[in-house]
Amino acid sequence: MVAGIMTLSAERRETMSPDGKVRFVTEVTDGGQLQYSIVHDGVEIMQPSKLGIVRHGVNLGADVRLTGEKKESVDTPYILKSGKRLDTRDRCEQTTYSFTTSSDDKFNLIVRVYDDGAAFRYRLHGPVGVSDTLQAELTEFSVPTDGYAWIHPYDWNERHKPSYEQYSKNHIDINTPSPHDRGWAFPMLFELNAGKWMMITEAAIDGTYPPTHVDNSGAAGCYKIRYPEADEPVITDDNRPVSKYPWLTPWRAVILGDELNDVFSTQMVAHLNPPSVIGEDSWVKAGRAAWSWWYDGRSVRSYDTQIQYVDFCRDMGWEYSLIDAGWQSMDKDGVEGVVKYANKNGVGIWLWYHSGAGRGDETPVHHRLMSDSKLRRAELERISRMGVKGIKVDFFDTDKQRISALYPQILKDAADFHLLVDLHGATLPRGFERTYPNLMTTEAIRGAETLGRQERCERAAEHNATVPFTRNVVGSMDYTPVTFSNKIRQGVPAIRRTSMAHQLALAVVFESGFHCFADRAEAYKELPKLPKEFLKKVPAAWDESRLLAGYPSEYAVVARRVGTAWYIGGINGKNEAREVSFRLPEDCVGKKFTLITDGADINSFGYRTVKKSGTELSVRMLGNGGFAVVIE
What we know:
The chain is of the alpha+beta class. The two termini are 41 Å apart. It is built from twelve helices and 40 strands. Helix 3 (303-316) runs parallel beside helix 4 and helix 5 (373-386) runs parallel beside helix 7 (406-416).
């Protein structure tokens, strides 16, 4: 890093990206209000927006003066263990601005500017080690209103337990109020008429601040930070942040670009988190998994069924098999017998746990193992010695700070015992995968397990064509895809409305370091040769990812590379047939390959051989259809 310190007289400063295209403008107005704006290639894509934190009844963003700045260049390569690109680089320009209020309160605004966006956070000062509470955060996002937005409402269903599983509101006017009074969830995607794409989200939640969302209470109805809802029922805790000084707030991240691929391919959320703390990590391996629970929840109690799934994973070359809730009641030789057999056959077993959020001492012990530090470490040591490879921890059910603080605790303890983690029923990813590489995936998505209701099957194609541009941008997504069967709920099947090729393509279109393919083993065994071979080959972690074509909620064509092999998946989010054309990756040109496409209807596959590809490829998809191909 190169650093310098200077005393300032002017009240307007800029931090510029390494390539010079992005400028973050920090300004104190004549009235003493601290605000920011962002300019991309000469276009103001974030209008002047207020900044501020309320502490002890004082707004730290009002009546302030700029007293200093420190500039640094950040350039840190690092390796991820899962995600859209493993070999990556945190490269940006950083400025730490110092401010003093009229009441002599001091704080910093830390700004980072990347080639694909900008981020900022507050550093609060007080007596070292002393705990304090914040009343509000006043950060606003004044997005230009000449454009459209794709945003998920904050998850305020009949249970009042946010798990980020709402459908996105697609192509709506910017600053449209949420359909309920609880606001919007991150991430927020915008298409601006100036020819820019932008995403706003949050990064670096470490237990010292609750995850946040936004509402429309900012100036002129713009988006403004909002704390978790006070009446989230899992715990009765205050919804405001509590921590000790010195205190860093989460990063507010603004991702942007001229092309949608600039947003799709960003890794800024991971960059904004601290480096790995788990040490030697050769044991951390992304992978595919089978999961018997989706089609038959009772199967987790059957030793014979789980042995059959281990055999199936071995034959498919899949690395893992997940045994979900209820495994403690497995018959015969129990889960210990399954794990022993699986290890002999080169298959790793994952086990499901309740997070214990809000559970008291009267709760059965196996439902609060993960929330009690002593119980948790004892259980993790026990199953690690048994040979278990990973844990799926479910039902966190609130964004209040005490429960969100469980995430790093679980991840650190799991790493101590070489266990991988899937955070299910959890908050939105905010970059933990850099600090805790054993985090393979997070749910925070309306996934395939909800397809037991017909109305959700009817919406699945559009939903699937939205989330690659929203939810999956910010982190691995435990959707549990690739379901060819009709899910049966209470004895009634819900009829699949997406095509077989659409479902196959989700293995590429969706990214997850723990890619849990949810259908029954028989459905995969019955596949024709080429789709089955595709699922045997497709990996769960990538050297490169690109959006080749697409538009949110309409269609997506995604290419991902491992070594010299490219996997391409395309899905149609609409119920009308669509012809898509896209440019192939350069090293695919001139090669021979066979496309797996839609057949005569959504319940059959078609095949098309390309003997020598050019630079462009066109593929026809049925309504709700798709295609997949591997080019080696």
